[in-house]
Design a protein that fits this description.
Elements: E1 6-12, E2 29-30, E3 33-34, H1 35-41, E4 49-53, H2 57-65, E5 72-75, H3 84-91, E6 98-103, E7 106-108, H4 110-117, E8 123-127, E9 136-142, E10 145-152, E11 158-167, H5 178-182, E12 188-192, E13 195-197, H6 201-212
Parallel strand pairs: 1-4, 1-6, 4-5, 8-12
Antiparallel strand pairs: 2-3, 6-11, 7-13, 8-11, 9-10, 9-11, 10-12
Length: 217
């Protein structure tokens, strides 16, 4: 852990309708363990963890409490009509100096989560494209460091994964997606992570194979 003052926000309010499993994606199990559980197991050293709930909120809260009793829950009552930016902005009220955002529909390589939690500055992260319908990151190098310059639906070397760390005052007023909250502050340092987003049935099958294979590509 890097010792910065940080609030971790996990967005779990959505309905997961594209996946078609009948539950919010944070409750989807991969190899016998929910995506939310996998997040919480990797966040044991973080003191301020907030889970945004909406659809199936009672089930999500019950699942979270199985893994830690001190999770703070934030309700997005407009989950049917809003996107993750709204969830993050609701949970960012009264946050610590930095906000780290995680989507409830993503798997993060355990070693790479250590890299995330040891980072003491702002960043936008992504990785090798691996999902059916990705948003892409455009990057450039300067002084031997890589920076994110833009988000794109068509062009980019990396897939945006929903994980970013920003000063909390920049995350207070989201209306769309999380990346739209970060866009006004680009360029930002890039952090490459191995992740798998689960948005479709094909994504889910790839994620299961990834975990079964020990998180190897």
């Amino acid at each position: 852990m890097c010792g910065i003052s940080r609030t971790v926000i996990i967005s779990c309010a959505g309905m997961g309708s594209r996946l078609g499993f009948g539950c919010t994606k944070a409750l989807v199990e991969v190899e016998g363990k929910s995506l939310l559980a996998r997040h919480l197991e990797l966040l044991t050293g973080e003191e301020d963890v907030r889970v945004v709930v909406g659809y199936q909120s009672e089930r999500v809260m019950e699942e979270a409490r199985r893994y830690r009793s001190d999770v703070n829950f934030v309700f997005n009552h407009r989950y049917r009509e809003t996107k993750t930016g709204v969830s993050v902005s609701l949970a960012a009220q009264g946050a610590r100096d930095y906000v780290l955002t995680l989507d409830g529909d993503i798997l993060v390589h355990p070693q790479d989560m250590e890299k995330v939690l040891s980072c003491g500055h702002e960043f936008v992260s992504g990785g090798i494209p691996a999902s059916d319908d990705p948003w892409m990151l455009q990057t450039f190098e300067e002084n031997s460091r890589e920076f994110v310059s833009a988000f794109s639906k068509e062009v980019g070397a990396y897939e945006w994964n929903g994980i970013t760390q920003m000063a909390s005052d920049k995350m207070q007023h989201g209306t769309g997606h999380v990346f739209q909250m970060a866009e006004p502050y680009l360029p930002l340092p890039f952090l490459e992570l191995r992740t798998r987003e689960i948005d479709t049935a094909n994504d889910y099958e790839r994620a299961v194979r990834w975990v079964k294979n020990g998180f190897l590509s």
